[in-house]
Amino acid sequence: MKPVEVKQDIYWVGAIDWDIRDFHGYSTKKGTTYNSYLVVDDKVTLFDTVKHGFAGELLHRVHGVIDPAKIDYLVLNHMEMDHTGSILEVVEAIKPEKIFVSTMGFKSLQAHFPTDDWPIQKVKSGDQVSLGSRSVSFVETRMLHWPDNMFSYIPEDKLLISSDAFGHHWATSERFDDEVDASELMSHCAKYYANILMLYAPHLRKLFAALGEMNLDIDTIAPDHGVIWRSDPGKILAAYERWCNQHFSQKALVVYDTMWHSTEMMAKAVANGIMEQGVSVKLMNLAVNHRSDVVQELLEARALVLGSPTLNNGILPRMGDFLTYAKGLKPSNKIGAAFGSYGWSGEAVKILTGALQEMKVEIVDDGIRHQFVPDHDALRACRELGVKVGQAVKASA
Ligand code: FEO
């Protein structure tokens, strides 16, 4: 459990959580890390802490550099418990001279912990604190993804400590972007953005505009989850700009659940029609795909087509789960339609179409509902629905 040098006198001292598999509904199949950074200067400063249960790992890594009691300042960029769950133990160990938090962070911190005798100093965007040979500038990043988030920027080291932004859930022994597989890294980043930040795209667009005005010189981005961007920070910045500006691929997503395979047959026919138009399609059965993986695919898809049979005048429960989750993430500028098999009442297509409309999805077809098992004519109609979706995707490019 050694610290890892990020830059001269700056160390990663966080913790690796190999076992976590669920992050409030987001499937973290490959674990995560909780990153903390230690800056050794006249004022020794720790940026962020770790989840409950990992304080020992953090403090052990700090010991590899310096006695934790010699830490002067603690900066808390965000109060969610994956970064503050260990704070009582950490504050007790280091007894900081000052704890820096954003104004909103102060409120969050008070609502979580007994802070009355803590030496808290509130900071806002533009405030600077000297550490000795270097300084820290704070940039509030409200709603990315809590009201309290902020960045800490160290200009002398061209280092941006970015809290949750630009991070990803992936437990690795490697600490830097150039040490891991590049395509897997970007896939984890896309999943993280889709599941944590997609709904805050308007805030991100404003942040990028503000960062452009600040003209920060950045050569390293150190997020609070995953590897550190030391070789190519521009790559994750460019990806975020693309995602928050909703540059979609010519791609459609067909998401369905099925009871006795009739809706599955319809889903495959819809997908075939989309493919015939030369549009990329992904068929995702909710019985075997986790909601957070579906949302990742939704990130760059132009079309969302939903299928469910009718169950008890409603839809299948896994589709209900997916819709609850996806609606909250506010995917925008999509087109879509719905389909499904039914036995006697057949409300599912209407419910799915209504859910798409609630998500402000542009409906390109009234949808197809078919009683019991689809015959050739029904499957032909589903294929034609797919053709219509594919044409709409191409027309919107
Ligand atoms: Fe990684 Fe919002 O906490």
Gist of the model:
With 397 residues, the chain is α/β, with parallel strands linked by helices. The chain has helices spanning 55-63, 81-84, 87-94, 103-112, 182-197, 201-214, 233-244, 262-276, 291-299, 317-328, 348-358, 376-395, and strands spanning 4-7, 10-12, 15-17, 22-23, 26-27, 32-34, 37-39, 45-47, 73-75, 98-102, 120-123, 128-130, 135-140, 150-154, 159-161, 220-222, 251-256, 280-285, 303-307, 335-342, 362-363, 368-371. α5 packs across α7 and α5 crosses α9.
Descriptive report:
The protein has 397 residues and is α/β, with parallel strands linked by helices. It folds into 2 domains: 4-244, Ribonuclease Z/Hydroxyacylglutathione hydrolase-like (Metallo-beta-lactamase, Chain A); 251-395, Rossmann fold, CATH 3.40.50.360. Helices cover 35% and strands 22% of the residues. The chain is built from 12 helices and 22 strands. Strand 12 (128-130) and strand 13 (135-140) form a beta hairpin. Helix 5 (182-197) packs across helix 7 (233-244), helix 6 crosses helix 7 (233-244) and helix 8 (262-276) packs across helix 12 (376-395). The radius of gyration is 24 Å and the shape is elongated. The structure holds MU-OXO-diiron. Residues 78, 80, 82-83, 145-146, 164, 224-225 line the site of MU-OXO-diiron.
